[in-house]
Every structure is written in structure tokens, then in C-alpha cells.
Amino acid sequence: HNVLESDPWSWPFMVYPMRMVGWDDSSIKYLEIGNPFLWWGSATVCLLFPLQLLYWLVCWQRKCMSWRSTEFREYIDGAMILWGGWALHYLPFFAMGRVTYIHHYLPALYFGILFLAYQIYNVSSWYLSERSLRRVLFTCATTALFGFWWFSPLTYGWNKPIADLKGMQWASSWP
Questions:
Q1: C-alpha to C-alpha distance for 123 and 57, rounded to whole angstroms
Q2: Which pTM does this prediction carry?
Q3: Cα 163 to Cα 10, 159, 173, distances in angstroms
Q4: Residue 102 exposure: Cα atoms within 13 Å on the Cβ side
Q5: CA 28, chain centre distance (Å)
Q6: With contact defined as beta carbons under 8 Å apart, do 48 and 122 qualify?
Q7: Rounded Cα–Cα distance for residues 22 and 29 (Å)
């Protein structure tokens, strides 16, 4: 591998973001990093969904579900479309024999972020009051906006010394 290549297993948790240009103090620095909260959150819900589905299928078989059949069917239909979009855009890269880069994950990330929002809303609305649901949604939106604001200098270009980026290196594998 060269510095720009990465394996598909590393994409959902953004283990190796892609550095776009040189990183000396005189150049503008770009990093394909995105928002860690959205990447890590979407990866978590996408990877755990098969276990969640297995749990519900066991509960359905044992007839211990408290959901109405239409309610469950509506949830599963939406969840399978979003999770399926993520899986179909991500899993084929494990079988490919070509060079892979983190930007190959972006179509899957799109579905993953939609699935994250879908899961947060649905799971929260099942267990929380309307007021608590609004608080959860506000907290999630605020966290996503903070992540965008914090990492936006790397997305749009950083023209200051590399030492000033110290607080943005949240993982030891990041450049």
C-alpha cells in the first residue's frame, strides 16, 4: 500500500483518512476526513443492525414481540432499504482486486448516515416521550454540527502550520 490506499475494513471507522496534498507549513492542507461523529455513528448502527434483526426474528418466532405487525413491517421496510443501500455500496469492495481508497466508501456513507438518522429517530420514539425525543434529536443535530464546524478547516483547506492541527487528530492513525 501507498499512503493514499486503504482497505475496506478501515473505511467505516475512518481509520486512515486520505491526505490530499503535502503537509509542509507553507502549503494548504486538505484531508478527506468528514465528520467523525457521523462516520462512527453510522458505522456502528450499520454493523450492529444484523444482530438487531436476528434478535427481533428470534422474538418474533417466540411470539414475544409487542409490536403490531404493520408497525414492525413499516420499520423493517425502511430499515432494509437504507441498510441494504449501505451494504450494496460497501461489501463488494471486499471482493475487488483493485486499488481501494477511502473515497470509494462515500456512496455507502450516504446510506449509512440516513440509516443512522432512521435508527435514532425510530428507536428513540419507541422508548422516549415526545419531549425527550426532541432533546435527543437536538443533541444529535448539535453534535453533527459541532463535528462539521470542528473539522471544516481540513475539508476546505488549512493554511496554517501543521502544529495547529494537534486537537484535530482524534485517532493515532490519522496524519
A1: 17
A2: 0.87
A3: 26, 11, 16
A4: 21
A5: 27
A6: no
A7: 7
- Report whether 104 contacts 133 (CB < 8 A): no
Bridge-partner residues for 31, per DSSP?
Answer: 19
Residues 6 or more apart whose CB falls under 8 angstroms from that of 26 comprise: none
What pLDDT, in 10s, does the model give residues 53-111? Answer: 999 889 888 888 777 778 888 999 999 999 999 999 999 999 988 888 888 899 999 99
Report phi then psi at 54, rounded to 5. -60, -45
Residue 1 pLDDT greater than 60, yes or no: no
Task: Read off the amino acid at residue 87.
Answer: A
pLDDT at 48: 97
Q: How many CB atoms lie within 10 A of CB 120?
A: 17
C-alpha cell at 125: 420514539
Which grid cell sits at 6?
486503504
